[in-house]
Amino acid sequence: MKIYYATTAVDPKYNTIPVPRYVLFVNDKSLLTDSYSQYLRNKIREAYPAPGIPVIFSARSRVRND
């Protein structure tokens, strides 16, 4: 899997505390495994500790216009 870029979007489901959703733009979203998602969550939590705030990922496959 190749991650082209990532961005954050606030999940409207959480009204009281805005919870960011990390949107990953990848070559093939089916290649994002649970273990790699957990690795990314741990790295984000190391850099930005926020106890009790969930880290949510959403992957989108790249669309080619060839």
Would you write up a description of this structure?
With 66 residues, the chain is of the alpha+beta class. It contains one helix and three strands. It has a three-stranded mixed β-sheet with strand order 1-2-3, with no helix packed on it. The longest helix has 14 residues.
Short description:
This protein is of the alpha+beta class and 66 residues long.
Write the SSE topology.
Elements: E1 3-10, E2 20-26, H1 34-47, E3 56-61
Parallel strand pairs: 2-3
Antiparallel strand pairs: 1-2
- Assembly state (oligomeric): single chain
Q: Could you describe the largest sheet, including whether it forms a barrel?
A: 3 strands, mixed
What are the secondary-structure elements, in order, as H or E? EEHE
Number of helices: 1
Number of strands: 3
What's the overall geometry? globular
Q: Termini separation (Å)? A: 20 Å
Sheet with the most strands: spatial strand order: 1-2-3
Strand content: 25-35%
**Which value, in Å, is the CA radius of gyration?**
13 Å
Segments where pLDDT lies below 50 for 5+ residues?
A: none
Q: Structural class of the helices, strands and pairings?
A: alpha+beta
Mean pLDDT: 85
Measured as a percent range, the helix fraction is 10-25%
